What does this fold into?
Amino acid sequence: MSTTAVPEVAVTAVDEGFWTRARKTGAVLLALGVLATVLFGALATGQQARFTLSETEGGAALEINGTVGAILFGIIAAAAGAALLAGVPKRWFTLVLGVGLVAFVLSFLCWQVSAAPEGRNFMPLVNVIRGTFILALPLIFGALAGVLCERSGVVNVAIEGQLLMGAFSGALFGSISGSVWVGLVAAAIGGALISLLLAVFAIRYLVDQVVMGIVLNLLAVGVTGFLYERLMQTDATKYNSAPRFSNWEIPLLKDIPLLGPALFRGNIFLYVGLLLVLVIHIALFRTRWGLRTRSVGEHPTAADTLGVKVLRLRYRNVLMAGLVAGVGGASYTLALYSFTKNMIGGKGFIALAALIFGRWSPTGALLAALFFGFADQLATYLGAIGSSIPSQFLAMLPYLATILAVAGLVGKVRAPAADGKPYIKG
Amino acid sequence: MTNPNPVSGSPDKEPATEAQETRSEARATPSAPAGDTERAVPATATKQPPTEGPRPTLGRLFLDNLWAANTVTVTVLAVLLAMLVGAVLIIVSDPEVLATYGYITARPADALNASWTVVSEAYANLFKGAIFDPDAVGFTAAMGPISETLTYTAPLVFTGLAVALAFRGGLFNIGAQGQATIGVILSAVAGFALPLPPGVHLLVALIAGALGGALWGFIPGILKARTGAHEVINTIMLNYVAVYFLSWIIVQSGVQNPNRSDAISKPVESSAQLPRLLGSDLRVHAGILVAVLATWFIAWLLNRSTLGFELRAVGENPDAARTAGISVTKTYVLVMVISGLLAGLGGSNMVLGSTANALTPLVIAQIGFDGILVALLGRVKPWGVLLAALLFGALQAGGNRMQSYSGISLELVTVLQALIVIFIAAPAMVKAIFQLRAARAARLQTSLAKGW
It folds into this structure.
């Protein structure tokens, strides 16, 4: 991103005057808040909006009158926007913005839930949280693969292909061997295979990395689709009936209200995914490998001068990224569904968006992935309660949010400086 | 674009050195112009400078150039390599053939024969479906394959040109898919909603599609120019926004076909359809003529017009272009608008031509993504794009026959296309595999966009 700004922009960035980014964001948020107060408040019915703490309608619940809730949260959002517009200390910016956005979403939910037909006007929070994490899972793995690659200076647009190859080889070899573990290892290797191609062509042959990523995605779609039709469709029991990981309940943690049933009764992939975020975060910012990775991603020549083997490190990171994404692909075929053609369906690109939205950091990517997962889950939920909002527009949300993010409306995103630039020693 | 690190950030280094080699070689043989190798051959043959001693014969020169890493040779070899990998895939995915490999040490002929049969049959069908079927009787049957090939070629020319033009302007337009989607929506709506006379109706529908694509290209263009937001990310995101918009608009009343419950729109009226060229039995339509016209226009635009010059200057080096007084901002926006316009026309072709006459969720198939491959294969030159689109169209048409006659999934075509472009993108590898001589004048490095 840093390389592309044209000078007109650079000038305004220095001399931005009254309309700082915080103030612009505040103005937008204020408008949203007013919109929520007026529109959502008017559309909401006087019914109670129930947010139950279980998977069903019953049990403990948070309740609020629909109209009151919509207006109340709308006002909170507007107030947060007004605060930003008036100017708050910089360190409070994120907090105030967060409160404002959450209030906006809550206002929206109060309207939607209260306006739902009788008998369906409740929102089971356990389901929503669990669904959010399940839908975010491939995004988490994919975005982590992106972090590993791009922090060392190799653009990874091939996440989609890595996930797909992982899902495919997990299903194929899991079915042939009848073992989930063989499937898992095969999935990781499958993802790494696409990575290997990316690494060789990007690092050895200096092919443009974005181009290569796009082409590799098509290659993965073609190869898996071809083998799917030739093998899996002709003999599904032999080639496409992989065993699945059962859910593991974690003692003690599973009894936490709300979070317990939502998070700690899931399958291995959920735990591995969350653990990986932590591990990669620590490794990237606290270990020697992490320092070297980051330095190679920012300034490979300097790193080389200090004795870091730039190319070797890039190869290793790209391959690791493939392993991670491969496991992410297996989270489909070894836990949820059997393989179908092009089953990743663009999740790899949302993962790329999550990576950028999360500013190339593991924890940021996690949060972005959860946000996208939530939007996805919300679309499903609203469809189920017969909402008047077309689900397609909710499905657009992650993409629109990413466009706003890279346009600098939500915060400046900056890629590693050497991201996408091949390193030629000399 | 300030590069803090001139050593590492140099994907351009390679072409520069190649160009230097070119120059020195050209100096050694003054008769050969430092242009395309293909052009160099007749030039040396006609102008025989007497001072240079014994000149190699024309045939000798031809053979030398044939095995040099020039564009044509690398392309042909890339296609061959891709088909080789495709053959391996066909073999390993055929359980019966694979079974013969179980006893290959005992009877190797079995395995080889079985492999040869299945592969040659598949590729023969690919050829028959794309170019000519020797068993065909009658005009319609004989022209069928060519007609199919041209039908698939037309939209790819547009999307390929869209991507290639953006590349030349220094932008990577991955959004041809989305731009084509918006184009197809507007074209279709104009095609069934407006009551217009034939001719005018078609023109309006085409313009509507072009405008839709231009709008969808304008968004990432203006974002890039105003905020520096990277066009790769924005175009990817807009692709999905377009897809969801398409799936929403199809089921709206007034758009959805009232006689159908599934997601399909009303059919485009015949007055807005591109006329068929070879009678109603063959699918080839006037879209291919528009495509050739567009290729000619883009070639003129790039090489002969002021805008084209500015566009190339910005693509080569935005800083230098700015210093020279070219508005980079304006150029970026214009490039994306024209690029989107072309992609939008590609979308129009899908619903105004003979492929479909109504909107469905998959109406434009993969033409946008295929356009990227076409542009790369065509070396981001307009006429190259046309040829590349022709190859891809042929693969698509042949793939259909291969699927129905040999039971080889159409996905093999996707694999072949991706592989061809991978090999093209890494000419160094093809050169190494086949031990090609360094090309005299071919500039093969496709170094285009530069990172995020």
In short: Chain A has two domains: 7-115, 126-406. The radius of gyration of chain A is 23 Å. Confidence is low (pLDDT under 50) at residues 1-15 of chain A.
